[in-house]
Structure of Dol-P-Glc:Glc(2)Man(9)GlcNAc(2)-PP-Dol alpha-1,2-glucosyltransferase:
Amino acid sequence: MAQLEGYYFSAALSCTFLVSCLLFSAFSRALREPYMDEIFHLPQAQRYCEGHFSLSQWDPMITTLPGLYLLSVGVVKPASWIFGWSEHIVCSIGMLRFVNLLFSVGNFYLLYLLFRKVQPRNKE
């Protein structure tokens, strides 16, 4: 039974990733420019991506902590070194949106772990 649970989880995670990728692709094609609050967040994320972490460059319209910007840099910078991508590609709106897609799949996994913790399996 435990093996089946692993298969079900793998299938659910794969489906979640597939649907997320399809939505990401559709939205990225339809919305080439920053949308809604991306107008504020995109320039700030691009500054972090370029290595400018100064508080003097912080946009006062942003009220959230810079955690996602720092995590995004931690994901896209190593990718740029490994694949040899230019700064323009790495700090693009599409790449930064893709980081959010990866985090959404990670959140799915965290929810699964929380569910298993709250609802433990029978020992029988």
The first helix runs from residue 2 to 30. The mean pLDDT is 85. The CA atoms of residues 1 and 7 lie 10 Å apart. Residues 1-115 form one domain.
